[in-house]
Amino acid sequence: MTEKGDKEDDASSQKSKPKKVECCGYPLSIFFIVVNEFCERFSYYGMRAVLVLYFKYFLLWDDDLATSIYHTFVACCYLTPIFGAIVADSWLGKFKTIIYLSIVYAVGQVVMAVSAIHDITDTDRDGTPDNMTVHVALSMIGLLLIALGTGGIKPCVSAFGGDQFEDHQTRQRSTFFSVFYLCINAGSLLSTIVTPILRGQECGIYSQQKCYPLAFGVPAALMVVALVVFIAGSSMYVKTAPKGNIMLDVCKCIGFAIKNRYRHRSKQHPGREHWLDWATEKYDKLLIVQIKMVMKVLVLYLPLPMFWTLFDQKGSRWTLQATTMDGNFGFLVLQPDQMQTLNPILILTLVPITDRLIYPLINKCGLNFSPLKRMTVGMFLAAMAFVAAALVQLEIDKSLPILPSSSQTQVRVLNVANSGVMVTIPPNEPFPVGPYQANEQYMTFDSEQITVSLNTTPATTSTFSVTKAMRQTVVVTPGNVMVLVHDKNAKPDQGNNAVRFINGLTTAVNVTTSGVDYGRIHPSMISNYSLMLQGKYVFTIKNGVDQCEYTKEFGFGGAYSIIIPSPWNNCEDIFEVEEIQPNSVHMALQIPQYFLMTAGEVVFSVTGLEFSYSQAPSNMKAVLQAGWLLTTAVGNFIVLIVAQLAKLDKQWAEYLLFASLLIVVCVIFSIMAYFYTYIDPVAIEAEFKKKEGLDPDKEEKLEMNEKDSVQHDDEEEPRQTKM
Prior knowledge:
Region (Disordered): 695-723
Transmembrane segments: 42-61, 67-86, 98-120, 132-153, 174-194, 214-238, 293-311, 374-394, 622-643, 655-676
CATH topology of the largest domain: Growth Hormone, Chain: A
Pfam families: PTR2
Radius of gyration: 32 Å
Family: Belongs to the major facilitator superfamily. Proton-dependent oligopeptide transporter (POT/PTR) (TC 2.A.17) family.
CATH superfamily of the largest domain: MFS general substrate transporter like domains
GO cellular component, one term: apical plasma membrane
Structural class: alpha+beta
């Protein structure tokens, strides 16, 4: 280590020692830290739960762009911890870093909430914001600040909590990290339940606009609370002074070794068998030995990003998949983004089961289920989760409407008269349409005009100009008058139902239901579509002094025309035509893929952290944690690369592509694991010191504070099981 490093280590021994206040044997200061962590995790996961739907339904991005920006944001959240660790350990210290970056974090959350606000001057009549550029710009600024804030404080908060304990309080410190872990998962679980409910509220000006300002505003408020609570405990905290960052020292040593080796590339040096040996002129040999141990593990990390590539699509592709499914479970109705709550629920269930039941049973069977083998199994389970997602997507695709291409149009005939007709639309054969009926399937045409003939006396013929890439209906009204109307051309967003009324009477009617007024519908006229949520509705239909009630229960994502036929008969003859089938594939079919993915996470992530801890020198554990977090960031960038290069039309094919890639990576990793030799870093360090004739007590100045390194590791272990 350099002389500068020695001076930084001397400075690290200085601590701010406030008056000790304890409660039940624990420093009172940790209660502020625990509450802060719960509120911060609620804020982050609450915002993230609804983020991809905000992109799609508020900013009106397509699935691919929404997914790309979502994963770019997640990747940034796992790149910035390196920045936070360097700032905390080399400059500001953990306390000030948490304060300053939490302010940035809170501002980012507030900006996100503001970005979702639109008023009467900024909204079309359909509820769509006019000035979309402002909303997009604010959203990107907010996400950038959030990524900097949440990532920057990640390496600091739990390590700062560990600083509050004395050396003899090992049991209390262990309990603290357990409670810290529970707060992370509790905040995640509660927020992924609450924020989708808040998003589902209606707060539009002219329409049933989803309330994203509220869904982002509550997490913003919780982040402000987290900051206030943390500051409130300031006078009680033990604050460790900045002491230099081991990651910087490692990077400098590696950089010097590469540069020095390149400078002497034409020379042979028998005593330098490893490329890192070229750093011995400037850096201590023990540090180089420790870096060699770390590099062995970092090489094993190379295939790991592919796991996170699949894992983090829970919040993007899987959530978008859920928007095309039926969330009615009878006793409750789940929103698409609420399916993510399965992950923390399953984590809290599977972690103790695997630790206390599955692993002990495997050991009793005499099987060598080593950490690297566990991680291989975890990757395989994640691949199987995407195979399950592909099978679910195939079922969804069967229920989706076949829509016209850009060069085609689709037409059907609806007869609202009380007598049947024979219809001819060349070049098709004549077909009958009974009274109060429509032909079952849309007919596809390539021409821009169609001629519709009715076999009546006398014959009735009309020619219509049709719109390409649209669905249309020819309505046959009483008196054999034909009217061409445009139908819904896609499934309604967010599980809504599109409903309109067709008046087949000779007099005008008024139609109302809870929250919707169709107004006055004149004879042989058709109302506009209104969007309605899942559930049962009672429509009140008034015809002059007479009125009746028509009851209809809607599912998710259907489109309907409800016809009021002539003659008037107190709603008994009202019938409906289903233009787009509602979501028929149940969200429960996503449970297997969530179970497989979470099981893979438990086996892969927790084991990976344990393996990294056991294979790293005590003063290098933070370096490996930074490398571990980096695999998550890289994994999210891989989503963007693969999705852009593949350009697959079918979503199930993309799922299978990702599953196949992970299986290939799984095979590569298993081969690397087979040739990996487990080491004992403590024994290697002791042997090296003995060989070099070093006094271990004097070598303490070459290491970062071991307690702080362990706290950094403890911090990431609970965090990583809930990404």
